[in-house]
Amino acid sequence: MSWHVTGEALSAYASGRIADSDAWSVEMHLTACERCRAALAAEAATDVDLSTAIRESWPGIAANLSSQGRVRRGSRSRELIVLIAAGPAARWAWFTAAVVVLALAAGLGAVTPFGRGQEIPLLGVVAPLLPILGVAASYGSGLDDAHEVIASTPGGGIRLLLLRSASVLAVTLPVGLIAGAVTGYGSPIPWLAASLALILTTLALASVTGVGRAAAIVGAAWVTGLAMSAAGDVTQAAPALLDPDAVPVWLLVSVAAVAVVALRRQAFNYTSLPAHPRLEN
Amino acid sequence: MEGTRTDDELLRAAGSGDRVAFEEYYSRNAAWLLIRLRRRCGDAELAADVMQDTFLAVWRAAATYSGSGQSGGWLWSIATRRLIDAYRRRAARPESAGEASEGLVYTSSAEDEALASSFGAELAVALDRLSPELRAVLQATVLDGLSTREAATLLDIPEGTVKTRVRRARLLLKEALA
Amino acid sequence: MNASTMIGTHVDVRDLVVEFGKRTALDGVDLQLDTGVHGLLGPNGAGKTTLMRVLATVARSTSGSVSLLDHDLSKQRDLRMVRRRLGYLPQQFGYYPRFTVREFVEYFAWLKEMTPSAVPLAVDHAIERVGLADRADDRLKKLSGGMLRRAGIAQAIVNDPDVLLLDEPTAGLDPEQRVEFRELLRTIGVDSCVLVATHLVEDVAVACTHVTVVSDGRAVFRGTPDDLVAAGEDTSDGDSPIERGYTAAIRAARKR
Known about the structure:
Chain B: Residues 26-91 form the RNA polymerase sigma-70 region domain. Chain B: GO terms for molecular function: DNA binding; sigma factor activity. The complex is a heterotrimer. By secondary structure, chain A is an all-alpha fold. Chain A folds into two domains: 7-62, no CATH class; 76-269, no CATH class. Chain A has helices spanning 7-15, 20-32, 34-45, 48-62, 76-85, 92-109, 122-139, 147-151, 158-183, 189-209, 211-232, 247-263. In chain B, α3 (44-61) crosses α4 and α6 packs across α8 (159-177). Chain B has helices spanning 7-15, 19-41, 44-61, 71-92, 121-129, 132-143, 148-155, 159-177. Helices cover 67% and strands 0% of the residues of chain B. Chain C has two domains: 11-85 and 161-255, P-loop containing nucleotide triphosphate hydrolases (Rossmann fold); 91-160, no CATH class. In chain C, 38% of the residues lie in helices and 24% in strands. Chain C is built from nine helices and ten strands. Chain C has helices at residues 48-55, 76-84, 101-111, 119-129, 145-157, 175-189, 201-207, 225-231, 241-255; strands at residues 11-20, 23-33, 36-41, 63-68, 71-72, 86-89, 163-167, 193-198, 210-215, 218-223. In chain C, the strands form two sheets. Chain C has a six-stranded mixed beta sheet with strand order 6-7-8-3-9-10, with helices on both faces. Chains A and B meet through α1, α2, α3 and α4 of A and α2, α3, α4, α5 and α6 of B.
């Protein structure tokens, strides 16, 4: 910094005998200039009133310097962590459950008969279900205890829902892929496409029914659909819903669901439930 | 300048619990903060209280300071929040209703000796020609970076008045500099 | 300069009707509130919570107009602006037991879309204002009922809201905490609009500058606590003057 406050101006400022415009100029400079702040401190030390006030204020501060606690800097990445971590699904318990379920599905997968006369890898059944359950658990207003307050915030609507959905997919998909690779169960693409379509359909339906109910409906439809397709056609190697031929259909469903979510995004601005059955008066 | 550490370094050290560093930070920054607070509230005792609150908050939050060379603005922004709090507390006490406006008229006058200034001479003259009320709102909203609502609380005037005064002050400055 | 300046009325409700199915929870409420601490009194089931929920923007009205901070709540574009400047503590507020007080308050600071650099200081400030500074890093499940309530208040005020809505905020507070809490309310009410729904008449008598009494979905009394006291001069039901006023206001409304 090339310009600094003159000694004359500093002492005028310290004593209060200074025009406002000059005081402003001094203050603007002090805010940015460490050297002049220190110079002003030296100047103030010669002023009985100021130096007394500064000296006498310190013990009151020093006596109250408790431990500082776990404070964190505010940043966009910290924001993401907090918003995602608050979801019940992000808790370790849920994560562990997801891993255990997938591991079981993968372990039992290839040999478990499902329906009549046909083998469906359990992984294919379970893997697309997990993201839906995860989204429901992490956002469903019946399960998120603080939903009432969240609904009153600007960031609590569709933004939070999408954020949580993405975080759930980020956890469940890799786990599913690994499980699939370990068991050597065919191409993961059919069930990945099914996963995507199911989660998006859940979100689209959620704009009408709320997340919890939407997840239940879509989950039940998935299981029923699989059972029916397995029972119906015993000649196929895989049930129609998990057949590679079904992939374009799943993608179409996904696109349609995205359109519905975009059109109905305002529905996420409000809670779908009353505050509390007891309290609704 | 004593010591070799910068304010940023002192703050970071304080953020990890270094009380010695914090005391040095205090000794370097208490003066300008106290003087500026006194100029804002015209009440030496209140200014000292607000300064104490401010440094306690700085101690707790030092670890969150992430700027480089912006510690002055950071410290002042904490201080203004505490100052507004103090005004709110004062205004909330029924027995002191109306007291809040006292001491808020900025006291200096344009006749004081002119000093070397980082502003242009024309701007300085124009600023000093503004009425104290107009200068006060400009100071609060421009120099101190307060919101209209905060300025209104500090100056004990309605928010609408803050807005109209800011508009008027800007217009007058523009005319004077034209 | 802050672009979002408050000049008009903080809360402006006209002929608000809210129906749940066939049941009418609010039946033509009018309410205009500015800065200050406003009490919302009424028996259980009178519609207080519904009114708070509509003002908190979580429930929608059936008819009538509601505007907050000069923004019409029926306009989706304005909703986001309003919500950034809102604080809300419902009667039953859910919390995450494993979160610390600091994390809990921070969570809502982010949800209210505060500037990242402002968040840590705002969180610290809010926790300090409710007197939980020494418990900031305790998990919520370790707190007493009164402390939890104060953590809830901290999240509501973390964004220094222009409109603060508190539904039965003194539940679970002990007498000393209650006194401190009323002091805090008065401080906040200096430059923002605080609406406190309560069934405790004494809260209103001590902390509020204005009172609205709600009964059977209608606002049946509006005035200062002194006005309410005056309304009860002719009755003898109730232990305190303001309680008598409250009883009288409710009775007068029911006779109509």
